Prior knowledge:
By secondary structure, the chain is α/β, with parallel strands linked by helices. It contains nine helices and seven strands. A seven-stranded parallel β-sheet has the order 3-2-1-4-5-6-7, sandwiched between helices. The chain starts with 9 loop residues before the first strand and ends with a helix. The mean pLDDT is 93.
Amino acid sequence: MKDAFGAPQSLLVLGGTSEIALATARRLIALRTRRVWLAGRPSPALDAAAAELRGRGADVRTVDFDALDSASHEVTLGKVFAEGDVDAVLMAFGVLGDQARDEEEPMAAVRVAQTNYTGAVSAGLVCAGALQAQGHGSLVVLSSVAGERARRADFIYGSSKAGLDAFAQGLGDALQGTGVQVMVVRPGFVRTRATAGLPEQPLATGPEDVAEAIVTGLRRRSETVWVPGSLRVVMAALRHLPRPLFRRLPV
């Protein structure tokens, strides 16, 4: 359950090495989140993330999780929920891909879609069912403004996020009245390891900015969070631009 600060007492992170997820976990631990599960592929980076969060006072455990292995999700994530109530799940895994390469190699494009969308549908439904069974909890889904309208520069990634965003919104509607909240987070360009070397886009933010917005959204029980907030207005305009004009924009 959430404490007086609106922070979950326990947190499951899917994508345990995500810079945004770890920034969020640090903020929540400072607000008295006491148990954290970091789910991801076994790696020194996952172990280091767990050690760092333990140093902040949380009971942290790592979980072997592969977004592409949907067949394992029910068992793997079921074991986490069997250990006790999970107050919040942060779904923060995903890949950007390489647009030029992925257009030339269809199977690489499929991997982007399977990770960002198919894997998220599988894990999201498993977690939503478990949260509903316990009668409470929040599912935070890290989407992207790239899913609002496909751009020539990244339409493979953008289309996968568009599917994820629509899925999360529908799931939230389906869970109304169950005690389970679904919050969709739509950041713009975020300065992370994944975007290093890419041209920086207008209204760029960092992992800490997204983390702050997530924590605020959990406290307010928001359904949709834009980071930065001004992107809501920007994307409302871009969404309705005629395609010939949209193609000519430097985005």
